[in-house]
Design goal:
Elements: H1 2-8, H2 31-51, H3 54-74, H4 82-99, H5 108-128, H6 135-155, H7 161-168, H8 172-182, H9 214-227, H10 233-244, H11 249-256, H12 260-278
Helix pairs in contact: 1-5, 2-3, 3-4, 3-5, 4-5, 6-7, 6-8, 7-8, 10-12, 11-12
Length: 287
């Protein structure tokens, strides 16, 4: 990707391989101009690194800022402000300038491109995703999104997952997983109005889900089960027969071998004890 960007940017060393007849593009540099520009880049780098000249650093930033902007545009996706990405790419450019060794024979642009791209990828990985997603899956999601848009323009229709998979050298399952992961990129508040043009419209939460009484039932059941620990085994059985199986006191007395009056007394005492324990702090139940 880095080499492609460098070759297509007319203000960088090595540019000028493509036609510049289209309006809005700078004229291509010939070999002599490219060589002169490369020498000037190296002179500024030496001036900054060996002489500490901040002016030379500023000049390098201005010379390579178009590259940072171009890389930021290539990583722009829906909902991501371009200005934010340009700032991230510019930070990557500054890091590249500070870390580059001007005594190396390689061109500065060859070092700057992966440094800027690394900063952009780090931004998406650490700050862009609402839900934590593995790094390789994040990068694949960005790639699938970018390739999908490019193929849509070329084909005049939305490409299938299999077509995208073939284009990027991945499996169809990986493409589908990347698309699903892309849904975790940005969270939307449930209080946000469904109609963006009408702030008074109902929120998103009103259109999803329903009130489920089962949660309250489950919570009550768990509370009762915990309270029942304070009763004896016979008391628990009497309450189960009365309130779970809905037996009469006479039928319960026959089951457990006591009189109806005794059953009535057991029920009253057990319920009163449960009520008393329920009104005490929860930690007392664990003693």
């Amino acid at each position: 990707m880095g080499l492609e960007v460098i070759e297509s940017h007319p203000s960088l060393p090595g540019a000028g391989q493509q036609s510049t007849d289209r309006p809005g593009r700078a004229p291509a540099l010939n070999a002599e101009d490219r060589a002169a520009r490369s020498r000037e880049d190296r002179r500024l780098l030496l001036q900054y690194h060996e002489g500490g000249d901040a002016t030379a650093r500023d000049a390098l930033v201005q010379r390579f800022l178009p590259l940072a902007r171009q890389l930021a545009r290539r990583y722009q996706r829906g909902g991501e402000p371009l200005d934010d990405l340009v700032q991230v790419a510019s930070l990557g450019l500054l890091k590249a300038i500070d870390r580059f060794d001007p005594r190396r024979e390689t061109a500065f642009s060859s070092f700057a491109v992966p440094t800027i791209l690394g900063e952009l990828k780090r931004h998406f990985r650490d700050k862009g995703w609402s839900v934590r997603v593995p790094r390789d899956l994040q990068e694949l999601a960005v790639k699938v999104d970018r390739v999908g848009e490019q193929m849509s323009r070329e084909l005049g229709r939305a490409p299938t997952p299999a077509e995208i998979a073939e284009s990027i050298g991945a499996s169809t399952e990986q493409v589908l997983e990347a698309r699903e992961a892309a849904g975790a990129y940005r969270a939307v508040s449930l209080d946000r109005p469904r109609d963006d043009d009408d702030e008074e419209s109902a929120g998103i939460a009103d259109s999803v889900g329903i009130e489920d009484a089962g949660f309250s039932v489950a919570e009550d059941a768990a509370t009762v089960e915990r309270l029942m620990r304070v009763l004896s085994e016979r008391e628990r059985e009497v309450l189960r027969l009365r309130f779970a199986e809905d037996l009469t006191q006479s039928e319960i007395g026959q089951r457990v071998g006591v009189s109806q009056m005794h059953v009535s007394r057991l029920i009253r005492q057990s319920v009163a004890r449960l009520r008393e324990v329920a009104e005490t702090p929860a930690r007392s139940l664990d003693r």
